[in-house]
Predict the structure.
Amino acid sequence: MTFRKFAFNNVLRNKRLYAAYFLSSMFTVMVFFTFAIFAYHPALSGSEMNSNVQQGMNISAGIIYVFSFFFILYSMSSFLQSRKKEFGLLMLQGMAVRQIRMMVFLENMLIGFFATIGGVGLGLVFAKAILLVAENILVIGDELPFYLPTQAVGLTFVSFIVLFFVISLFVSYVLRTKKLIELIKGAKKSKGEPAANRFLVICAVVLLGAGYGVALLVEGVVVLAAMLPVIIVVTIGTYLLFTQLSVFIIRRLKKNEAMFWHKTNMLLFSDLSFRMKDNARTFFMVAMVSTVAFSAMGTLYSFQSVSTSYTEMRYPNTFAYLESDEGDVEKDIALVETVLAEEKVETDKAQMMLSYYEVAGDQILLARQSDFNRFAELIGEEELELENGQMMVVEFEGMAYDQTEELLGQTVPLATGVHVTATDSIESRALPEVDSYFVVTDHDFSELLPASVEERSYHVWQAADGDQRILNVAERVYEELPLSSISSGDYEVYQTKRGYAPIMFVGLFIGLVFFVAAGSFLYFRLYMDVAEDKEKFRAIAKMGLSVTELKKVLSRQTALLFFAPIVVALIHGAVALTALSHLFYESLVRESAIVLGSFLVIQIIYFFIVRFFYTKQIQAEIT
């Protein structure tokens, strides 16, 4: 048997441990290849929008490539730690350290080669489907037909072969200083039960409490100033949480005899306590990587949600035309109605003259009650019911820069000598005035004593339901009419989503890569100790441990491994998104729940899959 064949057989013998590494690496290659497909797509080389998408894909591919380096490096280091005994036995049989390093190098290159081929192959298989999905998500306005991505294939293959080559050289070098006795002992060498330092335990509580407190209390631009200090404090606090506070809690639980001796709790606490030092590092890494994924996706989704919500608030009408100095009213209105007729879009229409009056040294809009009610009805708002002599202040809903307090108490004279006074206010989006304005009854409006200082024609078309035809109309009228006059709520929302789509698309992929990496870390941690677990549970089974009790112990042990860091990451993410809501002065509860809930569901599914195979493997060893 040749040396290369020996290395190949080693991979096959450790296939369960290498499976997660291989699949995670292949997934990473596929994601990188997907971005390369977009980066070199012919349809993304024209408009400025498409160029921005292309640039975003290039940047994302670079981020994923750098992250892949550290992810694969960590994975291979984990494998080496789990194979100490194997290397020791090989050295005992006469194999030189140089030959072991060569064996590790060949193994990693073999896995890297097939992971690269597999990632590119899967990318090609799903390329058309991914392009079809991207057409809808990216909202770039062009079709993305399938093409033969020779440049993307070449770039991906060369990049990852180089990456695996560099990492293979590095990880094989790690074995140089190991002594034979250390390798032979392998996992049998006890690391001892870690002890908690009370001062560091207190530090963990104080740092996390202080970080959370500041993040939840600050508002506005102060959130940005506090961001870096909070991140540093919470990161240190998280590390101490897993390395010190968790150890302290476990030791306290073990002293509670009623809990420790209850059924199989002794197995759980003893095993967790013994391995906590190693698990703590993995927990910390998974918690921080997951927090980055949660926060990044939550932030991007929140930005899009807030911007879209603001746009929908600002432009409530399907189409609105406001007279300006740049256009011809009759010609412009005729054009809009002609295009609507040609695209067969049915609408309800309303029009009025916006009249501005001199009030308290400022130009203020005064509107008839009947005009206001017609426009309010179009967008489903309640109509006003005023009495003669009553004047209402209206502020544009959702706008912070209003004049309501200044206008309340202001009076406007009528021809009869009576003055109407503004005594109350409401919020509405019926009329386009973003500054506060007045609404009076039709009778009082006809009796206004001062003449208006400015009048502007205002027309609105409200479609029964939105569809693609509305966007077609908007694109045509936006090309012909001055942007200062025409607006379309559906089109503005479409443009907002289109602007955020590339960022969301990129963020989604990067978030998935980070999350898959976090899951892979947990998988590596679990399967690194599988041989030791088999031996341990085989011995315990001889003392009477039933299959049902075994499954219960393994389920609790696996659940703790999978969900301890994820729960911490979810709390970190929830606090981060709450701080973000304070920055915008907007509630982001719905967005936070969607993002965090989605990741939690994925983790639960992943947990059940891993638990099934892990339990099956241990059970097969003792039955």
The first helix runs from residue 3 to 13. Strands lie at 319-322, 347-359, 362-368, 390-396, 411-413, 419-428, 437-440, 454-463, 486-487.
